[in-house]
Amino acid sequence: MRASTQARRAPKTCAVLLAAGEGVRSGGRKQFRRAHGRSLLVHAAVGLLRVREIRGLVVVVPVDRVEPTERDLEQAALPCWQRVVAGGATRHLSSRAGIDALPDSCEWVLVHDAARPFASPELIRRVLRAARRAGAAVPALDVHDSILLLEAGNAAQASRYLPRARLRAVQTPQAFARDRLVDCFARARRHDFTDDASVVRRYGYEVEVVGGEDANRKITTPEQLRTALRELARREKTKHGED
Ligand code: CTP
Ligand code: MG
Q: Of 33, 101, 157, 188, which has the fewest Cβ atoms less than 10 A away?
C-alpha cells in the first residue's frame, strides 16, 4: 500500500471542524454562506488541509445539513479521509459528536471553528508542534482593551478590572493528544464550555499557549461576515488569475 493511501485510510492527525451553530449574531448560519462557489466551511476545511500531516477530517453540522454537506465536500474533492456528523445544542456537544466520530487510527486532534477560515498553515503547525510537546495547545492573542468584570446580575455595575497583562483572547485551532481529550470529555458534566482547552484545564492538564493571528479572528457579526466573504472571493480570483 502506498504511503498516501495508508494515510487516507488510517490518518494519525485529524481535524474536527465545528459548523453546527445557528449564527444568531451574524443573522443566520454563516458557515454555509458562499464565496467563489464554496461555502465558508469548505474554505475552512481547505485551509486546514494545506497542512499535509492533517489527513482526516470530521465536519460537524446541524442535523438537517449532513447530506448537503457530504455533497459539498465530495464536490470539493478534498484529499483526505472524511466524515460528516450531526452536532448538538451547544458548541461543547458538537465537539463531543466530532470527537466521537474520529477514526481509531487518530492520535492527534485539532479542533477548529468553521467561523475562522483564515488560520494560516504556520499557525496550525505551531499549535500542533506545541501540543506534541505539552499534550494540548491553543493559539491566543494579547488583549488590548481593558477588561471589566461586572457585578453578578447587574450589567450596569462595575465589579473590578482584570489584570490585562495576564489576559489572552483564545482562538482555534486547538490541538490535543487524542487520549487526553477523550478522557477529559468523558469526565465533563457541564455542556457550556466555550472551547475545548477549557475542558482539558478543568481536569488539571497542561495547555501550552502559542501566538495567535489577527486574521484568524472569529467571524461573528454581519459586517465581519460580509468582509470575510469578500476577502475569500478576492483570494480565489487572484489564485485563478481572474484579476
Ligand atoms: N458551533 C457548533 N455547534 C453549536 C454552536 C456552535 O458547531 N451548537 C460552531 C459554530 O458553527 C462555529 C463555532 O462553533 O463555527 C464557533 O461558534 P460561534 O462563532 O458562536 O457560532 P454560532 O454559535 O453559529 O453563532 P452565534 O453564537 O452567533 O449563534
Ligand atoms: Mg455561538
A: 157
